[in-house]
Amino acid sequence: MAKTRPHARTKQAKCMENPEGSPPQGRGPRGQSGWRTPALYEPARLKNSPRRQRYQELFDFAPDGYLLTDPAGVIQQANRAAVALLNAPSALLVNKPLIVFVAPTERKAFRAQLIHLRQARRVEEWAVRIQPRGGAPFEASLTVAVAHDPKGRVVGLYWLLRDITRRKQAEEALRQAKEAAEAANRTKSEFLATMSHELFTLLGIVLGYMYLMLEGAFGTLTATQADIVWRVKRHALELHELLVALLDLSQLEVGRLPLETTEVDIPTLLEEIKAETQEMCEGSGLHFRWTVEANLALIHTDPRKLKVVIKNLMRNAVKFPSEGSITVDAHAHLGGVEISILDTAMELPEKALSLIFAPFHHTQNSTTDQDEGMGLRLHIVKRLLDLLGGTVTVESKVGYGSTFRVWVPRESSASPDVSFDAVL
Predict the structure, then answer these.
(1) Helix or strand (DSSP H, E) at 140
(2) Which helix (H) or strand (E) holds 292?
(3) CATH classification of 173-253 is 1.10.287, yes or no?
(4) pTM value?
(5) Which of 239, 251, 265, 395 has its CA 20 to 30 A from that of 174?
């Protein structure tokens, strides 16, 4: 077998050692050893090729700044956008360490990131403060990728430079606007909470006199007088419910509605609700049916808030006077309890279902064209169930009515160590 002389290498072997576009090893600019930019040190036959010229034009006229550096971060090539951002001619940028254009206060961190980058094999994006030559510093985004040779050695870094000053200013303006809006919302909610308490006091006095008059404390009323006083009392109670809704909403928004969880027996809870809403149910003219699954397990939740949820849904069901029935059903479901309220007299339009739990959204019965009123009850139901870790859904069918389904977990997912200032 003939021996191959060391210097008798084939053309193919030479190309494998230094493929087209891969950086030749050797002495770099100013006597530095290491990588040279592929764009600058291509084979001679490619330097003036149309393909090379097209890539060079794309590089030069790109809208963002592009930089090629050696592994140490020394600039080898910069496009026009980078020249403009760094405020230095291309001839001055070449062989300059990129770190000299980083704000002095951030150079230590930049150097540490650069060392770490050479050990990584991923694209990274850094937020840095750039100090252009003779200009004012600006916030910049640097996206950097590591270039490797066929043997996996780091041979260079590719940088994308963007001025993000306007973006940062917009983010800061948005943050300040958000904080101002939240502060205004808290002020509004605190005002509503304070005013609600004051109105509760005055309304309590009015209701007290109404009850005394109906009981004959100031003398016997005629039938007409009793009817008028009863109507005043009914509207005063509606006003009371509105104030309760506003107070609940304001407390929810400012985070002042604490959880008081305990073991709850759902059949007992529903019996209490049935007794407390008896007058409302009898006055509605609707037939009520209560069904509870036998041997329901105890759940751990806040009974007062769950009562508010069920009562609000029942009030929502009876607000449209019409013939029909309301069925309240409770049964075990998916690691908790589901309580459904079926109202055969209420049919909701399809477009209303997706907005029905939004605040101040008026739900209109498609069979009577009557509005709900302030549109707070269902929103409060949703917010309270979020607090309890539960859910509420609604479905409505023509000729069948509407069903609200409340699901509460067996164990409340809320944090037990939350403390607030006020109670429901």
Answers:
(1) strand 138-148
(2) strand 287-292
(3) yes
(4) 0.52
(5) 251
